[in-house]
Amino acid sequence: MVCSGTVIKDVNHPGKSNLVWTAGHCVHAGGSGGWYRNIAFVPSYNDLGKSESELAGATTTEIAPYGTWWADWASTSNQWIQGGSESGGDGAAHDYAVLHVKPEQGTKSLEETVGNALEVDFSAPSATEVGSMGAWGYPAAPPYNGLKMFKCIDRPGRFSLSPSLPTMYRIGCTMTGGSSGGGWFRVVDGETKLVSNTSIGPLDHTWLAGPQLGPDAEALYQNMSKTYGGQ
Known about the structure:
Largest sheet: 5 strands, antiparallel
Order of helices and strands: EEEHHEHEHEEEEEEEEH
Oligomer: single chain
Distance between the termini: 27 Å
Strand order of the largest sheet: 1-2-5-4-3
Radius of gyration: 17 Å
């Protein structure tokens, strides 16, 4: 499975984060399965945007400028674990996860290595409060091939799977599978913050939806930070 992710700040370990935000379905199969294994995160993968033929002769540094980071722990919502599914949207309103990663070599943190990490906005703003929201990812299903990063920027709308579930964000976007887990960002007082992640989209690839990140998401993040952060 190909997924995307975002380096996020570790509030309990400033400047030394090893945390990555992604989608729940990128780490756990949901109600019908269990945890995935051997999850690797490659920050700024093919950041030069080389084609498939060009990558065949590229150096490791050109393909993975910051190396490969292996997840040694993952956490997602109980709602996704209990009710998530591969199709139909079940669990999508809680489809988020945090990875703790370690480098293949060296002792620097992920944040120190890449030189940046984003704060997560857990205020779950209403779609009507946000003028613009952007989603980034590595779509892998045709017509894409998972080798380059793409983005979609749009004014978000509200998306509801059920009156009993939290509202999700929806933006117009043609990205396909592989973009799952990619960060959704908005600018607050001049600062870019992660506000959601790609969860689901229709078969005609005309839009994407992502969960609002509220108290449950923040609790999951805090637990990962306190338990595994700084390692």
